[in-house]
Amino acid sequence: MDDILLSRGLALFGGALISLGVALAARATRLLTPDGIAAVVVVGALVFGFGGYGPALLLVTFFATSSLLTRWRADRKSHPEHRQGRNGLQVLANGGVAMVLSVWYGLAPSAPLAAAVAGAIAAASADTWATEVGLLSLTPPRLITTWRPVPHGTSGGITALGTLAGVGGAGLIAALGAALLGAAWPTVWSAGTGAMVVDSLLGATIEKKIRGIENNAVNLIATSTGALMAALLA
Protein backbone atom coordinates (compact mmCIF):
# COMPACT_ATOMS: atom_id res chain seq x y z
CA MET A 1 0.00 0.00 0.00
CA ASP A 2 2.82 2.40 0.90
CA ASP A 3 4.51 1.69 -2.44
CA ILE A 4 1.26 2.40 -4.30
CA LEU A 5 0.75 5.68 -2.45
CA LEU A 6 4.35 6.71 -3.09
CA SER A 7 4.05 5.88 -6.78
CA ARG A 8 0.79 7.81 -7.04
CA GLY A 9 2.27 10.77 -5.21
CA LEU A 10 5.30 10.85 -7.50
CA ALA A 11 3.04 10.64 -10.55
CA LEU A 12 0.92 13.53 -9.30
CA PHE A 13 4.01 15.60 -8.55
CA GLY A 14 5.52 14.81 -11.93
CA GLY A 15 2.26 15.65 -13.67
CA ALA A 16 2.07 18.96 -11.82
CA LEU A 17 5.63 19.89 -12.77
CA ILE A 18 5.13 19.01 -16.43
CA SER A 19 1.82 20.86 -16.52
CA LEU A 20 3.38 23.90 -14.87
CA GLY A 21 6.10 23.97 -17.49
CA VAL A 22 3.56 23.74 -20.30
CA ALA A 23 1.34 26.35 -18.67
CA LEU A 24 4.17 28.84 -18.16
CA ALA A 25 5.22 28.45 -21.78
CA ALA A 26 1.62 29.03 -22.81
CA ARG A 27 1.41 32.08 -20.55
CA ALA A 28 4.55 33.50 -22.14
CA THR A 29 2.76 33.43 -25.49
CA ARG A 30 -0.47 34.78 -23.94
CA LEU A 31 -2.36 31.53 -24.41
CA LEU A 32 -3.37 31.38 -20.73
CA THR A 33 -4.40 33.83 -18.05
CA PRO A 34 -2.90 33.47 -14.53
CA ASP A 35 -5.91 31.50 -13.26
CA GLY A 36 -5.71 29.45 -16.45
CA ILE A 37 -2.22 28.38 -15.39
CA ALA A 38 -3.55 27.13 -12.05
CA ALA A 39 -6.33 25.20 -13.77
CA VAL A 40 -3.92 23.58 -16.22
CA VAL A 41 -1.64 22.46 -13.37
CA VAL A 42 -4.55 20.89 -11.45
CA VAL A 43 -6.01 19.19 -14.52
CA GLY A 44 -2.63 17.99 -15.76
CA ALA A 45 -1.54 16.65 -12.37
CA LEU A 46 -4.70 14.61 -11.88
CA VAL A 47 -4.89 13.34 -15.46
CA PHE A 48 -1.26 12.22 -15.47
CA GLY A 49 -1.17 11.16 -11.83
CA PHE A 50 -4.16 8.83 -12.13
CA GLY A 51 -4.75 8.20 -15.83
CA GLY A 52 -1.13 7.88 -16.86
CA TYR A 53 0.55 8.66 -20.17
CA GLY A 54 -2.39 7.81 -22.41
CA PRO A 55 -4.97 10.33 -21.20
CA ALA A 56 -2.21 12.89 -20.54
CA LEU A 57 -0.94 12.72 -24.12
CA LEU A 58 -4.47 13.04 -25.47
CA LEU A 59 -5.01 16.14 -23.34
CA VAL A 60 -1.66 17.65 -24.36
CA THR A 61 -2.50 17.04 -28.01
CA PHE A 62 -5.83 18.81 -27.60
CA PHE A 63 -4.24 21.77 -25.81
CA ALA A 64 -1.32 22.11 -28.22
CA THR A 65 -3.36 21.88 -31.42
CA SER A 66 -6.15 24.10 -30.08
CA SER A 67 -3.62 26.72 -28.95
CA LEU A 68 -1.96 26.75 -32.36
CA LEU A 69 -5.31 27.17 -34.07
CA THR A 70 -6.28 29.93 -31.64
CA ARG A 71 -3.16 31.88 -32.57
CA TRP A 72 -3.43 31.07 -36.30
CA ARG A 73 -4.50 34.28 -38.04
CA ALA A 74 -5.78 35.63 -34.74
CA ASP A 75 -5.95 39.13 -36.21
CA ARG A 76 -9.01 38.02 -38.16
CA LYS A 77 -10.80 36.67 -35.09
CA SER A 78 -12.68 38.55 -32.41
CA HIS A 79 -12.87 36.32 -29.32
CA PRO A 80 -11.26 37.78 -26.13
CA GLU A 81 -9.21 34.61 -25.63
CA HIS A 82 -7.33 35.43 -28.83
CA ARG A 83 -5.96 38.50 -27.05
CA GLN A 84 -5.68 37.50 -23.39
CA GLY A 85 -5.68 33.69 -23.39
CA ARG A 86 -7.97 31.06 -21.92
CA ASN A 87 -8.95 31.49 -18.28
CA GLY A 88 -9.42 28.89 -15.57
CA LEU A 89 -13.11 28.34 -16.21
CA GLN A 90 -12.47 27.75 -19.90
CA VAL A 91 -9.75 25.23 -19.09
CA LEU A 92 -12.04 23.36 -16.70
CA ALA A 93 -14.99 23.51 -19.09
CA ASN A 94 -12.93 21.76 -21.75
CA GLY A 95 -10.75 19.51 -19.59
CA GLY A 96 -12.72 18.98 -16.39
CA VAL A 97 -14.69 15.96 -17.60
CA ALA A 98 -11.54 14.27 -18.89
CA MET A 99 -9.86 15.02 -15.55
CA VAL A 100 -12.61 13.36 -13.49
CA LEU A 101 -12.80 10.38 -15.83
CA SER A 102 -9.01 9.96 -15.80
CA VAL A 103 -9.06 9.69 -12.01
CA TRP A 104 -11.86 7.14 -12.24
CA TYR A 105 -10.01 5.25 -14.99
CA GLY A 106 -6.86 5.16 -12.89
CA LEU A 107 -8.72 3.68 -9.93
CA ALA A 108 -10.87 1.21 -11.90
CA PRO A 109 -9.62 0.75 -15.48
CA SER A 110 -12.15 -0.47 -18.05
CA ALA A 111 -12.76 -0.25 -21.78
CA PRO A 112 -15.84 2.01 -21.47
CA LEU A 113 -13.93 4.43 -19.21
CA ALA A 114 -11.00 4.52 -21.62
CA ALA A 115 -13.41 5.35 -24.43
CA ALA A 116 -15.13 7.97 -22.27
CA VAL A 117 -11.86 9.77 -21.54
CA ALA A 118 -11.01 9.85 -25.25
CA GLY A 119 -14.58 10.83 -26.12
CA ALA A 120 -14.51 13.84 -23.81
CA ILE A 121 -11.24 15.09 -25.29
CA ALA A 122 -12.42 14.38 -28.84
CA ALA A 123 -15.50 16.50 -28.17
CA ALA A 124 -13.38 19.40 -26.89
CA SER A 125 -11.06 19.13 -29.88
CA ALA A 126 -13.88 18.96 -32.41
CA ASP A 127 -15.59 22.02 -30.96
CA THR A 128 -12.41 24.09 -30.68
CA TRP A 129 -11.11 23.17 -34.14
CA ALA A 130 -14.52 23.92 -35.66
CA THR A 131 -14.68 27.30 -33.94
CA GLU A 132 -11.15 28.45 -34.71
CA VAL A 133 -11.13 27.37 -38.34
CA GLY A 134 -14.76 28.33 -38.93
CA LEU A 135 -14.01 31.93 -37.92
CA LEU A 136 -11.80 32.14 -41.00
CA SER A 137 -14.48 30.91 -43.40
CA LEU A 138 -15.10 33.27 -46.33
CA THR A 139 -18.79 32.33 -46.31
CA PRO A 140 -20.96 33.42 -43.36
CA PRO A 141 -22.03 30.75 -40.87
CA ARG A 142 -25.59 29.52 -40.72
CA LEU A 143 -27.54 28.91 -37.53
CA ILE A 144 -27.81 25.15 -37.13
CA THR A 145 -31.49 25.28 -36.12
CA THR A 146 -32.89 27.61 -38.80
CA TRP A 147 -30.12 27.67 -41.41
CA ARG A 148 -30.30 31.45 -41.70
CA PRO A 149 -27.01 33.33 -42.15
CA VAL A 150 -25.56 34.80 -38.95
CA PRO A 151 -22.40 36.82 -38.14
CA HIS A 152 -19.16 35.00 -37.41
CA GLY A 153 -18.88 34.09 -33.74
CA THR A 154 -22.63 33.61 -33.26
CA SER A 155 -23.38 30.73 -30.89
CA GLY A 156 -24.85 27.85 -32.89
CA GLY A 157 -23.53 29.16 -36.19
CA ILE A 158 -21.73 26.59 -38.33
CA THR A 159 -19.73 26.62 -41.56
CA ALA A 160 -18.67 23.85 -43.90
CA LEU A 161 -15.01 24.72 -43.32
CA GLY A 162 -15.38 24.70 -39.54
CA THR A 163 -17.37 21.48 -39.54
CA LEU A 164 -14.74 19.68 -41.61
CA ALA A 165 -12.06 20.94 -39.23
CA GLY A 166 -14.06 19.69 -36.24
CA VAL A 167 -14.44 16.28 -37.82
CA GLY A 168 -10.68 16.24 -38.31
CA GLY A 169 -10.01 17.23 -34.71
CA ALA A 170 -12.21 14.42 -33.43
CA GLY A 171 -10.47 12.04 -35.83
CA LEU A 172 -7.00 12.93 -34.55
CA ILE A 173 -7.95 12.31 -30.91
CA ALA A 174 -9.76 9.11 -31.92
CA ALA A 175 -6.63 7.82 -33.65
CA LEU A 176 -4.49 8.57 -30.61
CA GLY A 177 -7.14 7.10 -28.33
CA ALA A 178 -6.99 3.87 -30.29
CA ALA A 179 -3.19 3.75 -30.11
CA LEU A 180 -2.78 4.80 -26.47
CA LEU A 181 -5.92 3.52 -24.74
CA GLY A 182 -7.22 0.80 -27.04
CA ALA A 183 -10.46 2.71 -27.62
CA ALA A 184 -12.07 1.90 -30.97
CA TRP A 185 -11.47 4.70 -33.49
CA PRO A 186 -15.05 4.78 -34.87
CA THR A 187 -16.43 4.96 -31.33
CA VAL A 188 -14.39 7.96 -30.22
CA TRP A 189 -14.68 9.73 -33.57
CA SER A 190 -18.47 9.33 -33.62
CA ALA A 191 -18.74 10.55 -30.04
CA GLY A 192 -16.56 13.60 -30.65
CA THR A 193 -18.36 14.52 -33.85
CA GLY A 194 -21.78 13.98 -32.30
CA ALA A 195 -20.86 16.11 -29.29
CA MET A 196 -19.78 18.90 -31.65
CA VAL A 197 -23.26 18.92 -33.16
CA VAL A 198 -24.81 18.93 -29.68
CA ASP A 199 -22.61 21.90 -28.76
CA SER A 200 -23.91 23.85 -31.77
CA LEU A 201 -27.51 22.95 -31.00
CA LEU A 202 -27.13 24.08 -27.40
CA GLY A 203 -25.43 27.26 -28.54
CA ALA A 204 -28.35 28.06 -30.84
CA THR A 205 -31.12 27.18 -28.39
CA ILE A 206 -30.17 27.77 -24.74
CA GLU A 207 -26.80 29.56 -24.54
CA LYS A 208 -27.33 33.03 -23.03
CA LYS A 209 -31.07 32.42 -23.21
CA ILE A 210 -31.23 30.58 -19.90
CA ARG A 211 -29.68 32.12 -16.82
CA GLY A 212 -26.33 30.56 -16.02
CA ILE A 213 -25.93 28.88 -19.39
CA GLU A 214 -22.92 30.53 -21.00
CA ASN A 215 -20.30 29.14 -23.37
CA ASN A 216 -18.38 27.40 -20.58
CA ALA A 217 -21.53 25.57 -19.44
CA VAL A 218 -22.26 24.51 -23.02
CA ASN A 219 -18.70 23.22 -23.44
CA LEU A 220 -19.00 21.25 -20.20
CA ILE A 221 -22.25 19.67 -21.40
CA ALA A 222 -20.72 18.89 -24.79
CA THR A 223 -17.64 17.16 -23.36
CA SER A 224 -19.89 15.21 -20.99
CA THR A 225 -21.97 14.18 -24.00
CA GLY A 226 -18.86 13.03 -25.87
CA ALA A 227 -17.78 10.95 -22.89
CA LEU A 228 -21.22 9.39 -22.42
CA MET A 229 -21.66 8.59 -26.11
CA ALA A 230 -18.24 6.95 -26.29
CA ALA A 231 -18.86 4.88 -23.15
CA LEU A 232 -22.23 3.68 -24.44
CA LEU A 233 -20.88 2.86 -27.89
CA ALA A 234 -17.97 1.00 -26.33
Overview of the molecule:
It is a single chain. The chain has 234 residues and is mostly helical. It has one domain. Helices cover 74% and strands 2% of the residues. The chain is built from nine helices and two strands, in the order ααααααββααα. The protein has helices spanning 2-28, 34-51, 53-71, 81-84, 88-107, 111-134, 160-181, 185-205, 215-233, and strands spanning 142-143, 157-158. It has a two-stranded antiparallel sheet with strand order 1-2. Helix 6 runs antiparallel to helix 7 (160-181). The protein is globular.
Number of strands: 2
Q: What share of residues are in beta strands?
A: under 5%
Calculate the mean pLDDT score and round it: 91
- Return the structural class: mainly alpha
Q: Give the biggest beta sheet.
A: 2 strands, antiparallel
Major sheet strand order: 1-2
How helical, in percent, are the residues? Answer: over 70%
Gyration radius (Cα, Å) is 17 Å
Determine the N-to-C terminus distance. Answer: 32 Å
Count of folded domains: 1
General shape: globular
Number of helices: 9
Q: Segments where pLDDT lies below 50 for 5+ residues?
A: none
The oligomeric state is: single chain
Provide the succession of SSEs.
HHHHHHEEHHH
